[in-house]
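Follow-up to my post from last week.
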Amino acid sequence: MQAFGRNQISVPRSGRALQQVSGFGFQNFSKKISSVTYVTYTGCSVMAYIHGKLGIKVTTNIHQAYRRTSMKTIKRRDLLKMFSFIAVFGGIAGGAAYAFVKSLFPKVLYEPPKRFKVGAVYDYSDGPNFVAEHRMFVIKEGDKYHSLSSICTHLGCNVTFIKLSEPRTVTVRGKEIEEKWEFHCACHGSKFYGDGTPYTGPAPSPLPAYAMAISPDDQQLVIDKSREVDSNYRLTIQV
Amino acid sequence: MGIWNRFSQKVVRGWNPVSALHETEAIDRIFWAHWVPTDDDVTRESTSATYSFYLGTVLAVLFSILCLTGLMQMLHYVPSVDRAYWSVKDLQFIIPFGWFIRGLHRTSAYLMVIFAFLHMSRTFYTSAFKKGRKSNTNGWINWLTGILLLVLTPAMAYTGYILPWDQVGYWGATIGTNIMKSFPVIGDGMRQFVIGGTELSQDFLTRIYAVHVVVLPLLMTLFISYHFWRNKKDGGMACDDRMQQDEVARDRTSGSDKSGIDTVDTPPERPLMFMKRLLWVSLATAAFAVLLALLISFPLSAPANPVMAENPAKAPWFLLWMQELVASTTVTIGQYRINGGFVGGVVIPGLLLLSLALCPFFDNSPPEATGVWFHPSRLRQNIIFTAIALAIILLIFFTYFCRGPNWVFYWPWETWPHVH
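User reply:
Got it. Predicted complex:
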């Protein structure tokens, strides 16, 4: 017996003999069928068979029959229709979505440059000097200069510098240093030693230090926020 | 017949009930009442004031007030870094009754946060989130929708807080976006996506404005509507399975009664009674919000100063518990130090929300516990829930009263030292 479609379906030996059913109009019965129905194409008419106790399935349309016998297959035309539908409308929708999301990431940031001048050397006095515009501390110790960010490493509040009434010696990473000031954060109570190392509160990492230089044109101090340096970094300037 | 009666009959009611029995059809007949559940839709317990306290109705009314007052403020507010603060200041001091509109918006927002919490607690204590036995009751869907609304409500409040671009708002935004940044790996990208750059600026304010006045209210409206509809389809708030029995009982008592206890002579339940009750709750809520708005003044803090936070810089009260968490949950694991912003700002609230969301799926109490306040079979989960809720409330009070400058602990009666 020649089964329809690519799948070669053979008539099972068990169960009742297959009985040919002709006609149409019994579509409703098909809802009660839970299992396989065998359909065969015999010459000029489309027919269905009763198989065992599974029930009856009658079909009048050869393509429908084909689809029902093997649910996982799909007509080529339908497949192409679906593909072209997805290609056209999915492409439009996807492109639009991409454009929408992309528009939220600016190509140009109108933000202050990462490298900037912070004034002449003689503007600074010993100890931390707060440069509000850039949220930086320029720290002068004699002829040595370095910079620390004033942005708390916890959640970005501004740390303020607290001058200690008398210098004290603290141990930072196994090294004893003498500190004359500290940095405290108002928002969540983080405290940093004079070199920017956190010692209490939620701040997870030290205040970053940035590379400094002297500008060749007007001898101003320059801070390069794109270049982070370690806490021992000092720029020595002999005036 | 007076003009009002004619108008009312034609436009408002559209139909005239001839008898009390006829009035049960009001829901189907009157457009303005079509969304109200009928006796056939929900159980009678759903309309009981002592069961639900009408907390959802209160929330819906508050949301409406917020939309209205928000619209009024949109006519004055300028979402610009340079002008936002001054436009809110004008609203507060120059525009006639601007202080009232702003105050009402803010009291309603605060009340909405409180009532959302109460509403969720009510649902939890009555285990109304349970799936129910009936095939069409899906309490868990509405529970999840509710959790979404519970997140959206403080999100609205938080974005609204930023808009005046004053000190509190600015630093709140700084901390909020840095909590996002503390996310491992994708944190930086997320923050840049949200603020449209690397620093808080005009782009950020514009985005927050759009989110506050368009995106979140739309989502809110959508999910509130769905919340209502789902509730009605589930047979009311108790998510109760007695409807089948009720129908039998009602047949026995000539269609008048659901409990089967009352006699045949009981007058028919009228859906319009429920409408009236809703109206009373709405008016009471509005009156309460207005009264609070008149009594409490909400000053602006100083204009945003990007180089100097207030000391102490405290978040709005409904986020204070999270502020205390982010300030004290930085943990060191081996050589890694994990930012408290991530632990206290993302992980802990996320886990709390997740455990809330999973409640309906791990609740083993019997179906009789559904829709019953403090059912004994749910003692343990009620205790855990109460403990967490109390912890959050206590943290809020603790942070509000006991945190001074530089986040140092002070007793409420101690005076803070002068800083700055």
